[in-house]
Amino acid sequence: MDRILFGDNQFFGVNHISDEKSRQQLIKFKNDAVILETLATANAAGVGTFMCTTYARIGSIAQAMKDNPSKYSNYKIYPCMPYAHKYANAVTELGMLGALKSYMPGNIFSTALKGGMAFISKDYVKMMELMVDAEMKMFEGINTPVIFLQNVVTDLLLGLQAYELLAAFHAYVQKKYQAEAGFITMNLPALSEALHKVGIHQPIICTSFNKEGFRMSGGREAYEAVLKQNNCRIIAMQIFGGGFIDPKEAVSYIKNLNGVESILFGASSSANIKQTVAWINA
Amino acid sequence: MNKVKLALIGLGKMGLSHLSIAGAHPEVQIVGACDTSVMVTDFLKKFTPFPCFDNYKKMIAEAKPAAVIVAVPTKYHFEIIEYLLQQKIHVFCEKPFTLSHAESQQLTALAAENNLVNQVGYHNRFLGTFIEMSRLIKAGVLQELHHFTAESYGPVVTKPHQDTWRSNANEGGGCLYDYASHVIDLVNNSLGNIENISGCLLKKIYSKNVEDAVYSLVQLESGLTGVLSVNWSDSTYRKMTTQITIEGANGKIIADATELKLFLKAPVKNEKYTAGWNIQSVGALQSPVDFYLRGEEYSAQFDYFIAAVKGLEPNAINTFAQATYTDKAIQLMKQFN
Predict the structure, then answer these.
(1) Three-state DSSP class for residue A180
(2) pLDDT class for A131, splitting at 50, 70, 90?
(3) B33 or A119, which is more confident?
(4) What span, in angstroms and rounded, lies between the C-alpha atoms of B147 and B219?
(5) Tens digits of residue pLDDT in B117-146
(6) Domain residue ranges of chain A, discontinuous segments joined by +
(7) What digits encode the pLDDT tens for the residues A28-57?
């Protein structure tokens, strides 16, 4: 994995500390061209990996990349699935089964054989696989060396102690996509323990890591203790605590931590992208 | 100390989320999880260590929980919670509390009679920004209050469709029960209980049987008046977004889940805030939790419930009694129409 990964929250108005900023970002990135331009800026600054949630709009970004192979041939995407609010809103509207039906690949009838079987036999692993395939469709023809499970699913399964499903996801993306599985979490110490329990060695874990302990469940010390065990490949996210930590101090803390392999950050402006990259590389 | 024996009834979106948070809690032993959907219980049987049931009375008899989380459709709350309280079991129930003010009063009395811990899942009250907002109001930093606006918007029903209990008002569906209840509860517990409805529009946008928006003029016990504006068919929001604006003689507070903005005309003694705008992000206001699933507030409300069951917290936040006032306001809004 590259030392620096570029995130997508700013493109889709995901802002953990201000709803107002969130709206400004949605306005700024209304057109895909502006997103692509920002990705090009990041690429020029030496950040060639884009880690993104599987929003519908990412489909057209991926398509634009495929249409311009000369421009994006060195570009890697790390997909993060699923986009949880899409499913959560569907459950509220359609109920659990209705939501599942509406999000099965294509529609439920066109996947009658595989999907129908999954329903009848209650083969939950197969259902997970079908949903992974549905989310991966938009990335056909793009280099996706690591495929992530979003924190809301990782952590739901973690709390349910359904560790085997985490292992099943890990096995499936390896088998089907020759990719490494990654797990996004807000609970690093507990997740690391769980993944090792089900035999995943050196799991890739993307987790909040910042000097203020923001969204670091169990506390910063417990997180730093995981780094010392040297048995995970850690991507640090939310290094600015969503934006309330002084950026220079935030980078200085994270870049000097032994055991953090990659740093994920997102920014809207060219100046902020270049500045953050420069701080990390300094 | 002994672990709290906990069971769950209802394993939909909220129930599963509670089960996960409970499953990660070191002081909780899950003795049962109950749902009538075989799809869900089969899943849990296969992948989790939790004992599953399809009949809650059977589960109570066999698993003997000390506390139960109720997350079934609201229509079933009364019957189930009454049974649990009669069995001397502490209850956490999802919001809204019940579909009738009278039934809510009955359950509140029953919980008090039996000295049982009771809590309703209005999770906003465990958010750092709203906690600080309530504290500032109590401390009187805005001095005399003039007006408030309580809003909530989100993209739940954004096209014509109707399939679930949420699209049936008799089961607790609709924007009033689902979305507006949160806002009403926040108003009740930070500003004072709603006593009168001066006007109320329950508007259908896409739904046929329930309202998709609630717009209301309300008056509190204190005489303070304000506006409620709630719409769950708003595609300009990515997820549910709740905001309270409070105007007073000494300034204004605007609070949502992510930020607290305070404008002070004059600084207030013993407060760190200065004249003009003060911005506090949730990152600086929120206490950390031991397990995070979908927001600190969900874990914090559960931690609080368990602490109350263990006698370590006073069971003073989101009680049945408080939720009963929320149900009363909902009923007043329905009657207005």
Answers:
(1) strand
(2) confident
(3) B33
(4) 10
(5) 999 999 999 999 999 999 999 999 999 999
(6) 145-254+261-282
(7) 899 999 999 999 999 999 999 999 999 888
Q: What's at B150, amino acid-wise?
A: A
- Provide the b/e sequence for B197-219 (b: ≥16 CB within 10 Å): beebebeebbbeebbbbbbbebe
Any B CB within 8 A of A127 CB: no
Q: What are B287's strand-pairing partners?
A: none
- B119 and B200 in contact (C-beta within 8 Å)? no
CB B179 within 8 A of CB B98: no
A contacts of B23 (beta carbons < 8 Å): 159-161
As given in the structure block, the two tokens for residue A58 are: 């990412």
Domains of chain B: 4-123 (3.40.50.720), 128-281 (3.30.360.10)
> What is the maximum alpha-carbon separation in chain A?
57
In this complex, which of A12, A218, A244 lies closest to B290 when CB atoms are compared? A218
- Would you state the structure tokens that stand for residue B68, as one six-digit string? 């139960």
Q: Which of B313, B285, B312 is nearest to B297 (CA)?
A: B285
Compute the nearest-CA separation of B255 from chain A (Å): 10
- Asked if B192 and B221 touch (Cβ cutoff 8 Å), the reply is yes
**How many other CB atoms are found less than 10 A from the CB of residue B249?**
11
DSSP per residue over A164-231, as a string?
HHHHHHHHHHHHHHS-EEEEEES-HHHHHHHHHHTT--S-EEEEE--TT-TT-TT-HHHHHHHHHHT-
User: Where is B250: in which H helix or E strand?
Assistant: none
ipTM of the complex: 0.93
Instruction: Please give the Cα distance from B293 to B289 (Å, whole number).
Output: 10
Return the residue of A nearest to B39 by Cα.
Answer: A122
CA B262 to chain centre: 24
Print burial letters for A258-274: b (CB count within 10 Å at least 16), e (below 16).
Answer: eebebbbbbbbeeeebb
**Residues of chain A with C-beta less than 8 angstroms from the C-beta of B161:** 93-94
Given a contact cutoff of 8 angstroms between Cβ atoms, the answer to whether B122 and B318 are in contact is: yes
On whether any CB of chain A is under 8 Å from the CB of B51, the answer is no
| The pLDDT value given to residue B89 | 98
